[in-house]
Amino acid sequence: MNIWIDGDACPKQIKEILFRAAERLGIPLTFVSNKLLRIPPSNYIKTIVVSAGFDVADNKIVKLMQPGDLVITADIPLAAEVIGKEGHALNPRGEFYSKESIGERLAMRNFMADLRDTGVVTGGPAALSPRDVQKFANRLDRFLTIHL
What we know:
- The protein has helices at residues 12-25, 56-64, 76-84, 102-117, 130-147, and strands spanning 3-6, 29-33, 45-49, 70-72, 88-90, 96-97.
- With 148 residues, the protein is α/β, with parallel strands linked by helices.
- The termini are close together.
- The model has no long low-confidence stretch (mean pLDDT 91).
């Protein structure tokens, strides 16, 4: 199993948790982004830098991932593609996307985008809280315990 990270938007606290998990368990961890990211020296952690552009990093992750891999992303369309390829998708707030929930999540995302396009101010997501970070760490640990 590999862990793929949508690196451009991954919060620093989540990266730190992932770095520790990769080293502790010897899991391949790959950040895909359109800019060079700072990572610790490791045999398990690497980055792939793609060209700038809409969904270029997402498309690279989908191309490279295999069934059973874990993808860390807050991008709902990317999560839907990961699930479609029999992968697992976890967002930085510690919520797993599933076959059962992804359709509703996509519909809500598209609805909110339509509202924004008409000029309605919808606001963004709340800041990542310590509780979110802890939830992510717990869900990641539980997932890795089951799948390794």
